[in-house]
Amino acid sequence: MTNDKQxxxxxxxxxxxxxxxxxxxxxxxxxxxxxxxxxxxxxxxxELAQLVVVYDEAFGEKKDTFLHYWHTIDINCGNExxxxxxxxxxxxxxxxxxxxxxxxxxxxxxHRKNWCEVLLEGFETGARYVTLYDHPDKYNDYGxxxxxIFVTKSCHWRTTPSTTNTFAVKxxxxxxxxxxxxxxxxxxxxxxSNDTGRFNALSDEGKLLVSSIPxxxxxxxxxxxxxxxxxxxx
Length: 234
Prior knowledge:
This protein has helices at residues 33-43, 80-92, 115-122, 137-140, 171-176, 178-183, 195-204, and strands at residues 7-14, 49-56, 73-75, 101-106, 109-111, 129-131, 149-151, 156-159, 167-170, 209-213, 217-219. By secondary structure, it is of the alpha/beta class.
């Protein structure tokens, strides 16, 4: 892998995941992983970012999917937490420049145009971690949650206490925080990482997380980033 891009996207892709049975995984009728993958390809700025696909073959061989033509790093894990740990191991072995932004991405996120540029802006706020997902639960389920607001060229940003396992961080910072990332995906109930615990722990260590408002991406489930008609993006 070269160090000539500012962003390296590590996409975890699978044909089927046991996580799909979780209560918060209700999908809109238009949900389609292949279309979501093509949305990613069509919205990446190739001058800024390169894509690495990590495919978990535990629930379906790649040759039987739309990724059959795509070069992937293959793993065989079978649950979210183990695949996250495998991904962390893959990223550690890349030996990237410490200033390169690593975008850890799950396979059920849609993106808007220019998200690469906006992602870079997120680091102008001084945050250590950046997400483009504007969590609707942060407006309803957190009581008296208070956020600091920043503004960059394209949008506003808010501090937020946690996010999912889709986030961006500089490679050097991820390496420093690696033990925390490993801890919250190790020996977890049901084979699912505790992403809230992970980011609460990082916050306790003073590592700021910001999310764009409005969102430049969304988790495609029953908690999508507000104000956008995301079906228009598939």
